[in-house]
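Full entry
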Amino acid sequence: MRPELMHRAKRTPLLEDPFGYETPDTKVVRSLEWQEAFDQGRRLHEPRSSGFLLQMRRTVLGEIAAARGLNLWAYLWGRRTADRYKPEADMRWTEHEAVFPVRL
C-alpha cells in the first residue's frame, strides 16, 4: 500500500512489519514471509517452498476502491510439479495463471 493512501485513511504503520498498518483497534494490513524446512532429498540445500503473503482487511480495500471508483482485480501465478525423486531440471513443470475480479 502506498504510504500516503494509508496516512489519509488514518492508518498507522507497524514498526515490526515493513508493509503493515493498523488502526487503534486492529491490524488492517500485515505481511508475512515464510519458508519451509530445507529438503535433503532431491532439492539439496533448498527450501521445500517459500513465499510472501500480504493480507488486508476487505473493508479497507472496499473503502479505497469506493473512494476512487475502482474495481479490484487479482493476478495469480504459480508453478508446480508432481514428479518425485528427479533433479529439478528433469521434472515436468506446469504453470498456472489467472486474472479474476475480487469481490469486496
User: Anything to note?
Assistant: Residues 49 and 60 are 30 Å apart (CA to CA). The longest strand covers residues 27-35. The radius of gyration is 19 Å.
